[in-house]
Amino acid sequence: MTVTVRFAPSPTGHIHIGNVRTALFNWLFARQNDGAFILRFDDTDTARSKAEYAEQIERDLRWLGIDPDRIAYQSQRMDAYDKAAQALKDAGLLYPCYETPDELERRRKIRLTRKLPPVYGREALKLTDAEKADLEARGHAPHWRFLLPNFADDPFAPERTDVRWSDAVRGEQSVDLASMSDPVLIRGDGTYLYTLPSVVDDIEMGVTHVIRGDDHVTNTGVQMAIFRALGAEPPAFGHHNLLTTASGEGLSKRSGALSIKSLAEAGYEPMAVASLAVLTGSSTAISAMADMEALTGAFDITATTKSAAKFDPADLDGLNQTLVHDLPFDVVRTRLGDAGVDVDDPRAEAFWVMIRSNVKKVADAADWWPVITDRPAKDAALDGDDLAYARAAFDCLPEGTVDPTLWKRWTEAAKAQSGRKGRALFMPLRIALTGRAWGPDLSDLLPLLGREEILRRRP
Fold first, then answer.
1. Which residues participate in the annotated binding site?
2. Where is the short sequence motif 'HIGH' region located (predicted)?
3. Bridging pattern class, strands 4-7 and 36-41
4. pLDDT for position 72
């Protein structure tokens, strides 16, 4: 048996870090088991689903390093769902209901006052054919509910029916079908809710493991019952904890919070995003994984904690910086060029090697390129004794090759001339050379400037 997993987003907006957590869990699990990963778009909601969102989702996944083995669209598989629905109807397991939302709410309140579970009472099962015909003649289109197998002989006398499974993340789990309403599988307008298409696709596509957020735990019992009603054994299930914002709010495609598109556009490295999305909320230490192979090795689905985990973008900055510090020039060359660095300049590679430990994102390097090739920035200025010292120190610039040893030789000469030491010795020179009170090691910077440019920057 080949392990087969799926990620089934609705293309109704941009996917966010929480959605990608599920995609990555599935992708990594498949890689660990030499399995297959299916990207399956739940696009049956034709009013809200858009092709551009589906295209962006695929781009987002590939940006992260997820390369689907198969891509499918549920909107192209309606015949399969119609066939399954008819089979359930023929078996008496999918029945028409005509209540309005207001009627259902009134019945729910009545059951609560009687101290009964606020579940659907299956009143529609009592309708005669004549009553159904009359309702439809008066314009009441039916929605269709799946009859849960939570009774012995009388559907109006449900009894405790525990559906159990060994969850790949949470361990032994159970759901009592008697505590649930018969789920609606088909809306009044004839469109499908996600439940039936999902089960049909999982059966026909050979999905062996369904790994998803723990907000679906209670749905699992229902879906397992539908699998069996359609003559199939359910796959294995695993439910991971959800990510929230740093303030504890839920993530939403509609709000666009922490969307993968926005994170990519902000200059974050894919592996910084992937590492934090996967390792947050687990007992595995969070660190920046160099590539998907490393993340696959670190991933342990059983290490996921049961409580929701907060995703803090500030943590992302730290991981991103770690990854950027190790990126070679040939990997970032194009991005540097796009940011404004003249990558054809013979100093470009040495510049990147020097500056990468001082930036959080690759594009940040462009802010330093003019400082090297044109003139100092204007973020810091000299005055008073520091200005006089810097001017005198430039007169101490040693002769000879401008190499990484020059900075040490220069500061030693300046120290002997001025008696200064520590920050008072080197900071005025840094500001004179770069216009900033922070930055890369000056022993690396001086060779990029050259003697003529160094002297030109005498304050």
1. 253
2. 9-19
3. parallel
4. 97
Tell me, yes or no, whether 405 and 353 share the same domain: no
Nearest to 296 by CA among 28, 25, 16, 9: 28
Binding residues for ATP: 253
- Which single residue is written with the structure tokens 């040490």? 408
In a shared domain, residues 367 and 394: no
Phi, psi torsion values for 310, nearest 5 degrees: -90, 135
Same domain assignment for residues 412 and 442: yes
Q: How many independent structural domains does the chain possess?
A: 2
Distances (CA, A) of 207 to 36, 165, 202, 203, 210: 9, 16, 5, 7, 7
C-alpha–C-alpha distance, residues 125 and 97, integer Å: 8
**Tokens found for residue 299:** 């991933």
Range of the domain at 419: 384-456
Identify the bridge partners of residue 144 per DSSP, sorted by sequence position.
96, 186
pLDDT of residue 261: 94
The Cα angle at residue 282 between residues 280 and 288, in degrees rounded to 5: 50
The answer as to whether 449 is a domain residue is yes
Q: Among 201, 124, 217, which residue's Cα sits nearest to residue 165?
A: 217
Q: Tens digits of per-residue pLDDT, 337-348?
A: 999 999 999 999
Look at residue 186 and tell me if it is in a domain: no
Rounded Cα–Cα distance for residues 444 and 291 (Å):
29
Per the domain annotation, does 421 fall within a domain?
Answer: yes
Contact (CB, 8 A) for 237 and 6: no
Spell out a b/e string for 69-89, using b for 16 or more CB atoms within 10 Å of the CB, else e.
eeebbbbebeebbeebbeebe
Tens digits of per-residue pLDDT, 299-325? 999 999 888 888 888 899 999 999 999
Cα within 13 Å of Cα(302), Cβ side: 5
Q: Is the dihedral of CA 122, 128, 132, 134 positive or negative?
A: negative
Q: Does residue 335 lie in a domain region?
A: yes
Residue 369 sits in the same domain as residue 396: no
Q: Are residues 353 and 394 in the same domain?
A: no
Could you tell me the pTM of the whole model?
A: 0.90
Q: pLDDT value at position 257?
A: 60
